Amino acid sequence: MEANLFTSMLFATVVAGTPLLIVGLGLLVSEKSGVLNLGAEGMMAMGAIAGFAVAHETGSSWLGVLAGMGAGMAMAAVFGFLVLTLLANQVASGLALAIFGVGLSAFVGKPYESVTLAAVPAIRLPFLADIPVIGPALYNQQALVYLSWALMWGIVWFLYRSRGGLVLRAVGEAPSAAHAIGYPVIRIRYLATLFGGAMAGVGGAFLSVFYTPLWVEGMVAGRGWIALALVVFATWRPLRVMVGAYLFGGVMIAQLFVQGSGMEINMPSQMLSSLPYWATIVVLVMISRNATTIRLNSPVSLGQPYRADV
Amino acid sequence: MTTHTSPPAETGAGALRLEMRGIRKVYPSVVANDGVNLAVRPGEIHAVLGENGAGKSTLMKIIYGVTAPTEGEMRWEGQPVAVASPAHARGLGIGMVFQHFSLFETLNVTQNVALALPGAPDLKALARKIEEVSSRYGLPVDPRRMVHALSVGERQRVEIIRCLLQNPRLLIMDEPTSVLTPQAVRKLFETLRQLAAEGCSILYISHKLDEIQALCHTATVLRAGKVTGTCIPADETPASMARLMIGKELPVCEHGTPSGAGEVRLRLAGLSHACDDPFGTDLKDIHLDVRSGEIVGIAGVSGNGQQELLYAISGEEPLAEKYPVQICGVEAGRMTPDQRRSAGMGFVPEERLGRGAVPRMSLAENALLTAHASNDMLRHGMVNFAAVEKFSDACIRQYNVKCGGTVAEAKSLSGGNLQKYIMGREIMQAPRVLVVSQPTWGVDVGAAAFIRQSLIDLRNRGTAILVISEELDELFEVSDRIAVIAKGRLSPSKPTAETSVEEIGVWMSGMWPGAEATGEVRHVA
Q1: In angstroms, what CA-CA distances link B125 with A122, B110, B128, B143?
Q2: CA–CA separation, B62 vs B443, rounded Å?
Q3: B105 contacts A173? CB cut-off 8 A
Q4: Buried b vs exposed e over B230-246: b needs ≥16 C-beta within 10 Å?
Q5: A295 to chain B, minimum CA–CA distance in Å?
Q6: Which domains does chain B have, with CATH numbers?
Q7: What is the DSSP string of B442-465?
Q8: How many CB atoms lie within 10 A of CB A286?
Q9: What is the ipTM for the molecules in this complex?
Q10: A220 pLDDT exceeds 80?
């Protein structure tokens, strides 16, 4: 019984952490290039409704994910035009994008309010899923969960092993120096921003197509903001984003379990519900407070508009 | 700096490596280049001489493809070209070492070099190539080290190596010696001469006349965007080149005899401070007295604790103890900057925009920020704008600040003019102690002389002045005593008359008599 409980909690933790991981990794890439897009919540909401609508109309969950990705990218393109071409303030534009996306998703999602989708069956990885206790939790998951792991390793490789990643980090650290040695700063930032939007859209679609699976207005429920915070508190390092995402998912599941178990505890339920938010941030701050690692990993030009000197 | 090779023989107009004809560049508010002609032969070290704002940097940006000229023609090895981007310039064989380095601090040397090369070079092979080039040209640098851990001189070497790996036929050096010890300057000159002897042309931008005389074959002088002359520096005197550069005689400072040092106004009594910034320098047991009526200079290669020292004295970085900083006998180590100002200290930080002045505020508002205690600027907690205006206006007139009046934003001023304003603002408050960091950094010759003279005049009125500077010439010009900071430690001080640039240069690498022979010093060469 104990082992079963642990397995199911671990399973739920991974599911709950996956959208944060996907969105966080996308934002990480975008921020590494120096673009701070606070509109993650809006991009996720648009990804969620687009994904849900397409999955519902076509019956294909994968087309839904693609639609979510497209919606997130479209939102990011608008943001990119504002802050990269028109040099608008990134913070203000990002906040506007968040509000806009949440509102627009509610509007276009009206016809789908409380419609549900058939649950998508999990994919069981042979042999790995037979490992006792953790096997069924980790290796009997949705395809997107596996893909999120691949994404993380892909980004680690891209940022720290590939030339493209080197250029991206250079642009985020010193855009004028990158320009001076001949890199198209604005184009690179556009690409990073679009990637961030695409991942936010996929994260949103994961929520509405695989996780719940239904559409309710406001279902993103602050996950975009949490993903943004995760990236900062993880000091822009992919592995720590994953730790943070699963930590958040784990505490979320644990407190839901405690609340649902009828256990006698002298704590208001609101306190329990807030637990995942502050526990994640406290832990990440604790593991990332070394001044040198912060300085080495944070993109110096984050949030600053860049205009080539002509 | 004594050997001087003659310029390569003239081999006809067709052999020019670079020719700029009638270059004109118009910015919305200023004509930066106006009909500039420039001709550089292969293997020539060609100086571009001029004050700040004379249009040197604009011209270089045009050559390097950072910006496009409004009018004019550029010929590269006889062919007309329009350089579209820095990448294009590098493709042609033009390399540039920037004054403010274009390196990425969080990457290592090899990665930094790789970023500037076309294609995707193999990093291990590249590291070997870097070592090869660095030993060939006497530019020692470890390819595996992170750039943030390098001294300024080492960073410059990385930039030069980065250019050399592209086999440039023209190398542009923008004010390269401002960050080097005299010994390192000599080494750099050797490297440049070696390069020139191998056929590489060098455009050497500077306002230091002695360096240009020691190094360059020919010079083109710019003033206010126009060419005022070309000359062979070896045949000129510094005074004649200065005339071309500033249009009048080089101003000289009236030093006068020290008024006989009075009582101690600023005392550093065993100042130690661990720096929060992981890339900063810890201050270690610094002792120094600055007396009324004297100027004490602190020399050093940048990044050896100058900034940290200024922050500790000004109060930007409060100390754990009270006693290490004493202002006019008051233990001030735990005071805020404002309290230290009240105790009689004024300070001028190195960073003009951001520390010395708020870039987006008007000059009058910037005056209010530090001078509010004086001149009746505050009445019952309210700002007396008339007084602020009057103070600011007086400062602009007395210190000859070229600007759009007291309402002009600080960032709209040129470096030299803003520095004059900031110096004026501090001096007009008649501080008992004045601490100045890099008083003439990036300031043109005329303004620099004016600022130095202001410092000397202030000393003659009895103020104790501490000048932290990386320009040795300046320290020798204004100081009564000189000390050296290296790796966060301060050498004993020596009267300026009893020391020499050579000796201070040796001290700058941490080797003064009685210095602890510990560890590697962040020195150059």
Answers
A1: 47, 10, 5, 11
A2: 23
A3: yes
A4: bbebeebeeeebbbbbb
A5: 8
A6: 13-93+168-246 (3.40.50.300), 264-355+423-508 (3.40.50.300)
A7: T--HHHHHHHHHHHHHHHHTT-EE
A8: 9
A9: 0.77
A10: yes
Which of the four pLDDT bands, split at 50, 70 and 90, describes residue A212? confident
Q: Does A309 contact B at CB distance below 8 Å? A: yes
What is d(CA B18, CA B20) in angstroms, rounded to the nearest whole number?
Answer: 7
User: Could you give the CA distance from residue A22 to residue A231 in angstroms, rounded to a whole number?
Assistant: 11
Predicted confidence (pLDDT) per residue in B456-483, tens digit: 999 999 999 999 998 888 899 899 999 9
- Contact: A181, B116; criterion CB under 8 Å: yes
A288 assigned to some structural domain: yes
The confidence score (pLDDT) of residue B279 equals 67
Q: Does residue A165 belong to any structural domain of this protein? A: yes
Residues B401-406, mean pLDDT to the nearest whole number: 84
The set of residues, in sequence order, having a beta carbon less than 8 Å from that of B72 and lying 6+ positions away, is: B20, B21, B22, B23, B24, B33, B35, B36
CB B211 within 8 A of CB B47: no
- Cα within 13 Å of Cα(A291), Cβ side: 6
pLDDT 10s digits, A73-93: 999 999 999 999 999 999 999
Of the candidates B374, B443, B368, the one whose C-alpha atom is nearest the C-alpha of residue B406 is B368
Q: In terms of residue numbers, what domain contains A167?
A: 18-116+138-297
- CB–CB contact A170 B67 (8 Å): no
Query: Rounded to an integer, what distance in angstroms lies between the CA atom of residue B296 and that of residue B49?
Result: 31
Contact between A193 and B130 under an 8 Å Cβ cutoff? The reply is no
Q: How many domains does chain A have?
A: 1
